Task: inverse folding
């Protein structure tokens, strides 16, 4: 009889919605330090009474950093880099705006 291998996994303490709340909070506050982010999450629940922050408001600072490096968090990031269009090598007539142009 062959035994099947079952990998042990700890239960996930934070849901996908709570990870999304952390990602949105980080985006709105420009990715502050872990302790500052923890304080914001605590205030959202305790001061402002937002029930969706009840579980994640008890998160540890270390767990904030762990979640920020997780694939679940990275999939929830909203701000993406925008490509910059570079005009290197394009030849155009100068626009001096009333100032003399040096040719030479």
Result:
């Amino acid at each position: 009889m062959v035994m099947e291998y079952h990998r042990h996994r700890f239960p996930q303490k934070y849901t996908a919605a709570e990870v999304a709340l952390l990602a949105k909070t980080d985006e709105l506050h420009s990715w502050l330090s872990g302790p500052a982010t923890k304080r914001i999450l605590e205030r959202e629940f305790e001061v402002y009474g937002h029930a969706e922050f009840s579980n994640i408001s008890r998160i540890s600072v270390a767990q904030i950093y762990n979640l920020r490096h997780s694939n679940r968090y990275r999939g929830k990031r909203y701000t993406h880099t925008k490509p910059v269009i570079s005009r290197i090598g394009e030849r155009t007539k100068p626009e001096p705006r009333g100032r003399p142009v040096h040719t030479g």
Summary: Residues 69 and 83 are 24 Å apart (CA to CA). Residues 16-28 form the longest helix (13 residues). The chain has a mean pLDDT of 86.
